[in-house]
Amino acid sequence: MAAPAQNLRINGDRLWDSLMEMARIGPGVAGGNNRQTLTDEDGEGRALFQDWCVAAGCSMGLDQMGNMFARREGTDPDALPVYVGSHLDTQPTGGKYDGVLGVLGGLEIIRTLNDLGIKTRHPIVATNWTNEEGTRFAPAMLSSGVFAGMHTQGWAYAREDAEGKTFGDELQRIGWRGEEEVGARKMHAFFELHIEQGPILEAEGKDIGVVTHGQGLSWTQITVTGKDAHTGSTPMPMRKNAGLAMARILEKVDEIALSHAPHAVGAAGHIDVYPNSRNVIPGKVVFTVDLRSPDLAVITDMENRLRVAAEDIVNEMGLSVEFEKVGGFDPVSFDVECVAAVRDAAERLGYSHTDIISGAGHDACWINRVAPTAMVMCPCVDGLSHNEAEEISRDWAAAGTDVLFHAVVETAEIVE
């Protein structure tokens, strides 16, 4: 298949203006965004995206999970579409680019093709996946997971937020539940552009991350039970301090992850301490250990060593422990040909690049199970994301979308 000419570039100013206009919907309190999934703000962002897609000559598809599919027709009615996209929903204190860059980058590809009068054999479909963040309705990547057959639609509809509202009811309420069967679409390929959400590209001075793999993830919820007691009057040797046990377990988590350096990581972000009073020794702690690696054998090893270490610690202290696997997915190896298309595009355009492993989960990780898939990453300042201070440069956004454009259009096959 013919590659796009080296001089073809997207309109970086138009892309940036679109990012800034979308960011006005659901503003955060500190310069970022709070456009959580299935809120009124999410509905408003969807409507703006749809308006832009229709103006670009696309037809809009909508499935029963609210996934949006803006289609630019190809010349071959029998050719499967090339899909490109990410998500418009944000964290409660999210940035302006996480996910959004990938959706609007897909739209910019279509706009640029229109500007240049270029036709492709395969249709191109710009996609917005519902509830990638998983903040309001757990788990993350919920709708792409249903699309890929990882979750049932009924189970997804029953997910509840902190107020007891269900995903299915809220999707209906904001008016973005379609009739199309989820997962019925067949794809020629899928590409996702995303900010790195880590510091590697900026630290190494690279314009582009060519994502070869996605880390696997394991979430183990650990409950340690000791005995509540007065902090002032209970002698040290007589304490059954669940908080101390947790601290010792988390030290082991760090040790276990470091033993598989450089790609394995581990930490606990969710911690509940009971009764959480200043003058009561914790009688119970519940915390979730997040272990990640691009190697499934490493994840299994870390899980097993975590359980052994935790049991040894609590047994020595006279406490009890329970384990529950509350989330996870296997590592992802992205499609060799799609990855090569991304790498070749970066080379052709003269952008510095490096192969990279995604430390975060993305919709592409699920879609990779049903279609050839690859990801493009651009740097973000200080590697900061899931924070209102998340920032990228206009040049980084344009470079990432240029590479996305070339990889997608080459895969969709230009018609001369």
Descriptive labels:
416 residues; alpha+beta; nine-stranded mixed beta sheet; four-stranded antiparallel beta sheet; 17 strands; 35% helix; elongated
Summarize the structure.
With 416 residues, the protein is of the alpha+beta class. The protein has helices at residues 12-23, 40-55, 100-116, 142-147, 153-157, 167-173, 200-204, 242-258, 296-317, 336-349, 363-367, 394-412; strands spanning 59-62, 68-72, 82-86, 119-120, 124-128, 189-195, 208-214, 216-225, 229-230, 265-274, 280-281, 284-293, 320-329, 332-333, 353-358, 373-378, 414-415. Strands 1, 2, 3, 5, 6, 7, 14, 15 and 16 form a nine-stranded mixed beta sheet that branches.
What this model shows, in words?
By secondary structure, the protein is an alpha+beta fold. The protein is built from 12 helices and 17 strands. The strands form 4 sheets. Strands 1, 2, 3, 5, 6, 7, 14, 15 and 16 form a 9-stranded mixed β-sheet that branches. Helix 3 crosses helix 12 and helix 10 (336-349) crosses helix 12 (394-412). It is elongated and about 80 Å long. The relative contact order is 0.19. The mean pLDDT is 97.
Radius of gyration: 23 Å
Estimate the mean pLDDT confidence. Answer: 97
Task: Give helix and strand order, one letter per element, not per position.
Answer: HHEEEHEEHHHEHEEEHEEEHEEHEHEHE
Name the shape in a single word. Answer: elongated
Number of strands: 17
Characterize the biggest β-sheet.
9 strands, mixed
The secondary structure category is alpha+beta
Helix content: 25-40%
As residue ranges, the low-confidence spans are none
Strand content: 15-25%
**How many helical elements?**
12
* Cα separation of the termini: 11 Å
